[in-house]
Specification:
The protein has 8 helices and no strands. The chain is mostly helical. Helix 1 runs antiparallel to helix 4, helix 2 packs antiparallel against helix 3 and helix 6 packs antiparallel against helix 7. The protein is flat, with a radius of gyration of 19 Å. The two termini are 25 Å apart. The mean pLDDT is 85.
């Protein structure tokens, strides 16, 4: 558990450094926070590797998948934060990653699911898509909060930690576009590699995932064709992400934790 404690403490330290950076109105480009965050990500990923060695393969059950999404979001936050002005995202993401790791470590490891390489590819694409689109959902919430504060002329200090509206909106749609490509690949590999949707209790997950895919696709088309932005873009993003949450973690929660059919 030492590696878990190290990762959690470093995640908290990175978030605290970002909060201090905002509180002291330091330049957004300051990246001292990235050092503990980077080590935390390595420790987080290392814990999964050690766990997989113990169970003889990749553990992709509910809490393990939740933790993997957490580390994926942390990696994306590192990339966004060190290359631009979205380091403030770490104030939200790093505590979430720490909590997901703590939940996984606290519930123990389960046996590997015994998936062949094709289904493992499908699962990894799903996790990458979920992490990317979860970041997009957080960006949408920040965009909504920023627009609301500016309309009310409430010039909070945290606003200076965010990029301008146009830049934040552009980052949001780039994240959605990447996530949409990954989600498309997830659905395609599911169609190609999953043989029996009914026997594997995957029909409801597939329906919800397709609805989410359609919603994200409609949003991208609306942005390209009609210039959708602002509250409409935020609403579509959050609705599509809610469908994806129900598809992935909602179904896993019911099947694995409620019905014990993992």
């Amino acid at each position: 558990m030492t590696i878990v404690l190290i990762a959690i403490l470093l995640y908290v330290a990175a978030a605290a450094l970002l909060v201090r950076q905002v509180a002291r109105d330091q330049q957004p480009g300051s990246a001292v926070w990235a050092i503990p965050a980077f080590v935390a990500v390595l420790a987080h990923a290392g814990f999964h590797l050690l766990a997989w060695r113990d169970v003889g393969g990749a553990d992709l059950h509910f809490f393990a998948a939740l933790s993997l999404v957490g580390v994926g979001m942390a990696v994306l936050t590192l990339l966004y934060g060190t290359r631009g002005r979205m380091a403030a995202l770490g104030v939200i993401v790093f505590p979430l990653a720490a909590a997901s790791l703590a939940a996984y470590a606290g519930t123990g490891h389960r046996g590997a699911e015994g998936l062949d390489w094709r289904l493992q590819l499908h699962a990894w694409l799903a996790l990458l898509a979920y992490a990317t689109l979860a970041i997009a959902a957080l960006l949408a919430l920040l965009l909504w909060a920023q627009e609301r504060a500016l309309r009310r002329r409430e010039f909070h200090r945290w606003l200076r930690a965010l990029p301008p509206l146009t830049e934040l909106e552009s980052l949001l749609f780039r994240s959605i576009a990447v996530g949409f490509v990954l989600l498309t690949a997830t659905l395609l590999t599911g169609v190609l590699f999953v043989r029996d949707f009914f026997a594997q209790h995957l029909l409801h997950k597939t329906v919800l995932s397709v609805l989410s895919w359609l919603a994200f696709g409609a949003l991208l088309v609306g942005r390209w064709r009609y210039g959708w932005r602002g509250p409409r873009a935020v609403g579509w993003t959050l609705a599509a992400m809610a469908l994806l949450v129900l598809a992935f973690f909602g179904s896993k929660f019911v099947l694995e934790l409620v019905l014990d059919r993992a």
